[in-house]
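Predict both folds.
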Amino acid sequence: MNIGVYSPNWVGDAVMALKFIGRLRKQYADDKLIVIARDWVAAIFDNHPLINKVLPVPTKELAGVFNTIKTGRSFQKLNLDIFFVLPDSFRSAVIAWFSKSNTRIGFTGQMREPFLTDQMDLPKEAIHRSEKYIYLIQNDEHALDFQHVGITLREQEIKWANEILQENNVQDPIGLLTGSVAKSRSVPIGKWIEIAKDKSADDNKFVIIGEKRDAGNAQKIIAQVGEDRVISFCGKHTLRESIALISRCRAVIAADSGLGHIAADLDIPTISLFGAGDPEKTRPLGDLTQVVTANVHCSPCGDNICGNTLEPMICLDSISSTQVWNTYSDLHN
């Protein structure tokens, strides 16, 4: 059979879907597994040993009703027998319907039901998002002993990352993943400066990894901490290259972000700073990962923009650099 998976649309969610991929492969061991993903998240699934094909979809091909229908019809050539729709969006269900796959499985809501053959109600209990995706797999009893396979880098990608660090005279750095799509999850610049200048930071060198939009803040951090201790790769590399650079870090301190999920999945010691986000639902998964939170009265609010006008960003401002470095010590002991 041909099994299709419509990936979540955000990097962190795509990483959290990798456990779903492991369960799915266990259940459909001999079938062809095709992951369809927006172009900005397709790198998460690249070179994955459990996936037969990754099909990136350019954003422009999903703009508007006509392009959405056209994209769905283009998937008819895949001859999908089963299509798992992981996003909750109306658009993703419409695309699955136009693919003419025999079975289309997804969650209810947003008037998606007519486009799905198998509609699943969202779990009523609070569960981690990775488990939410797995909830879509029916008759999952035989897949409980699956082996998780995370992001898989090629040897040449690792070699490239080592060469980039050597060219910049950096060895065994600590990664600072400062950016986040949601403003409420973006750690204030002053907090990053406090963390990097804390006495517990010793003489560690830092590399800031992120998108082009993070470059301005990275330069402000460098101006305060020093070019001899911090360099920025923001906006200079593809997502796949950024993954390779993260894999070469001794440890990572991350905002609640997709890159934080990547670091955790790579088994890099990862400290995730959470404020608005709920760790019970979206914490990064990894054996060497810990979440740091201030547990203030208004968090986790789950909002993308801070609504606390009297104490804006108190959830992240209240995290101390001492908390961060104590957690770092715990991870390295």
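Second protein follows, with its predicted structure tokens after the sequence.
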Amino acid sequence: MGSDRAPAVEVEGGVAACAQLSDDDTIVLVGNKPAIQKALARQKGPQDKIEIVHANQRIGMNESPVESLRTKPNSSIAVLAQLHAEGAIEACISAGNTGAFVSATQMRLRRLRGVHRPGVGIMIPTLHGPVVLCDGGANMSCRPRHLYQYAIMASIYMETVYGVKNPRVGLLSVGEEDEKGTDLVRAANGLIKRDSSIYFIGNVESRDLFHGACDVMVCDGFVGNVVIKLIEGMSGGLIRDILNNLKDLTTSTPELRQIAMRAAGQTLETYDFNQHGGAPVLGVGGIVILCHGANSCLGMTNAVLLAHKYARHKVNQRITERLTQDERTGNG
């Protein structure tokens, strides 16, 4: 219960997701029980698949992740991670404090076998299809082998969840040439290139993200988070500006205005992060889905469905099998 409009968004999204889940699935809402019950009372959908676990503490967005987890052991984030670690739930989803959620899940769930550092795989919609960027902010101090594993894990995620066969992997740099970039990028380039099982197209630039150059874009968490925040801010501003201009141009022609607004609405829907729910933390020993704090009810519903799909396609099992193979062969 950590979104900007908690618990209403989580509750409504959870109720809506119930209709699309299997009969034996259950949604567990973790947070202030009276507040959740009040929000549930306003919902008209079926609630027989919903359970509530009370947590009387909440970690704010501006609180220190580690310190808040230490001083608030009964926060919804801490309780959620513990429930997953105990096997009471099979996936955990949060739109709350990202640092606290990632820290709690990594402490409780540890890493999958063979994984050096988990990374966030963020799906970015483009006109050429989805692109998964990894890492989106979990690991700010990367080593070459971390980026190499992000290429593997994000490729598995892209292939199993989004159905992209043999996804093309690009390494984010300041130029396409192998010798360009930081020491980290150059070393990672060499590691990824040596693995013939990865469809590595080499270095890519940030402008390639929306030009269909690759299906997976690999970078460290600092760079990835900057890219995501820039896209979020710039796309919102550009789309609002375009909509305003369309209104001015089509004021005198109702038919043209209707067509223009329909096209604008379709574009907004394509690039709305709520359509994709959230982003998995790849490499952690569980199913952990990060959501935007501004997620709508639709976003929370889609986050539940993403977690369900992640489990159904056994993404973590595939990652473990692949990296265990690397251990045997000495790669990475």
